[in-house]
Amino acid sequence: MIKKIKNLGPGLLFAGAAIGVSHLVQSTRAGADFGLGLLWALLLVNLFKYPFFQFGPRYATATGESLLDGYKKLGKGVLMTYYTLNIATMFTIQTAVTIVTAGLASTLFGDFISIEIWTVIILFVCFSLLVFGKYKLLDNLMKVIVVTLTISTILAVFMALSYKSSPISLKQILPSGALEITFLIAFMGWMPAPLDVSVWQSLWAIEKNKDTKKYNTKSALFDFNIGYLSAILIGIGFLMLGALIMFNSGETFSNSAGVFSGQLIDLYTKSLGNWAHYIIAIAAFTTMFSTTITTLDASPRVMNRTTDLLFNKSSKYGYLIWILILTIGTIGIFFFLDSEMGLLIKIATILSFITAPFYAIINYKLISSVHTPKEWRPSKKMHFLSWFGITFLIGFSIWYLTTL
């Protein structure tokens, strides 16, 4: 067991990337607006996305190559489609998560400097940690972050339960109307994460294998399951916090990063007492910082590898160039769209859900193909779950598009 714990890494990086806007913002809003009424959506989307995330580390450790290499084997058009989708979404995703992190930093550490400056500071810190510390530092850092996040979230939920005097309704709700359905799709879009994070997982698994040769397919699946379970439990935790503290409170959330962050923490503090302020603030900030640093690492990593595969050219400084492009692009978008945090998050999450069937289908096709060793192809149960998952993702996307 100790050996298995030491081998944890990419699974926790997955948890760090996943437990962010989807949990802190979307899950909290779901609880605030619907109580525990969208618990069904949280559980179903986690169940039906599971195979396609798991196929990332499974394929990487079984073959020694990333999903990107596999996509190229399926056809250059598949890889080009991925490249195009990633360019279209990576700046919006990075900006959305960094805006929320900056707002929380301002609330936690003080608003003596502007949100804009906090954004630059956070990106600079993440950039420095990644460029100088590389994967090994990120791997070790995430173990501390995920443990801190889990403990602080559990404490916050228990505190909220102890202050709740009225019974908690478990009645489930199917949203109706364009606004409610749009929120549902946005909620599920990043729950627990966008499906393209499976590609990140495959690259992290390869990096982990360089660090320790004992990171085989069984280790990778154990690691992934720990990270995935953590993401589900913490998602339920934030949904419960929203339901316990904010449901029927009459609070209207702002689309400004700084104002939203202050509202979020102040509402918890008013309900639970001043002593809860820092526990909630640390949980929230840790959540978003982990997402910011993992997304800042992953997008340049995948863009560098995709560029190499598409154009058959390898650059020693490719990762550095892409991380600079993403950092500068994020700062540029932020300075123009700071007041539109809510819109940015909505666009990013809806895009993630609508493109999810594409990733689900190609991941399933690749793991079931001759490109994967026979012993690591899906079992009958995983085949069935994959078919149901693809049907679920396509069905909800069509439902959303027909309600616009």
How would you describe this structure to a colleague?
By secondary structure, the protein is mainly alpha-helical. It has one domain (2-403): Amino acid/polyamine transporter I (Up-down Bundle), CATH 1.20.1740. It has 15 helices and no strands. Helix 2 crosses helix 12. The mean pLDDT is 82.
Helix residue percentage: over 70%
Identify the CATH homologous superfamily.
Amino acid/polyamine transporter I
The percentage of residues in β strands lies in under 5%
Q: N-to-C terminal Cα separation, in Å?
A: 50 Å
Whole-number average pLDDT? 82
Question: Would you report the number of β strands?
Answer: 0
Low-pLDDT parts are none
Q: Largest sheet at a glance?
A: none
Number of domains: 1
CATH architecture descriptor name? Up-down Bundle
What is the CATH top level name?
Answer: Mainly Alpha
**Structural shape:** globular
- Listing every helix as H and every strand as E from the N terminus to the C terminus, the arrangement reads HHHHHHHHHHHHHHH
Quaternary organisation of the protein chains:
single chain
In CATH, the topology is named Amino acid/polyamine transporter I
